[in-house]
Amino acid sequence: GENVEQHPSTLSVQEGDSAVIKCTYSDSASNYFPWYKQELGKRPQLIIDIRSNVGEKKDQRIAVTLNKTAKHFSLHITETQPEDSAVYFCAARILFGNEKLTFGTGTRLTIIP
Amino acid sequence: NAGVTQTPKFQVLKTGQSMTLQCAQDMNHEYMSWYRQDPGMGLRLIHYSVGAGITDQGEVPNGYNVSRSTTEDFPLRLLSAAPSQTSVYFCASSPIGQGNTGELFFGEGSRLTVL
Questions:
Q1: Chain A stretch 12-51, residues whose beta carbon is closer than 8 A to a beta carbon of chain B
Q2: pLDDT for B76 beyond 90
Q3: What is the b/e burial string over A73-110, where b = at least 16 CB atoms within 10 angstroms of the residue's CB?
Q4: Which end of chain B, N or C, is less packed with Cβ atoms under 10 Å?
């Protein structure tokens, strides 16, 4: 089955600097790669996603890049703000296949004011 | 439109007791799934279903049973609870096929403690 590895497990960044979280996946059939943000005590919420036919996607301060050949994808957050502090999860999913979505183990991002 | 509703939100069990975590969605989603979340281990898939009458195992299915008799409901059963099943459980759903953006919609979570 799919295996998603995520690094780093913790990340501290000065406010205003950029943060990068990296993930790798194992199943070449995976074609959908979302990123979820989870605040303490809350449910995970989708912040950005990318499909396998696209190499990069951007939404304001957040961007995701995908390298299908190397089977890795990354989340980039620029101009970080205190409200960006949370746990971030990458995931991989096979849409129009078994539909299973597999998560990485998460990155705890702390923004230092 | 309530989305994905999980009950109960909190539960304390003794080892060996049984219980059912309920999950219902009112969005007519074909795909439903259960995850458990433990510190440092992310969200691990327990069981999932792509439609009524169809279920399959995820990464950590042992100790859990599921059934999908209707599109709306996907209960998770613990037949004999163990302390290792202490966790936060999330139910999530999505459409499949055309119109599926890929996004999973999560319930609020159920915190289970097994003593």
A1: 32, 34, 43-46, 49, 51
A2: yes
A3: bbbbbeebeeebbbbbbbbbbbbeebbbbbbbbbbebe
A4: N
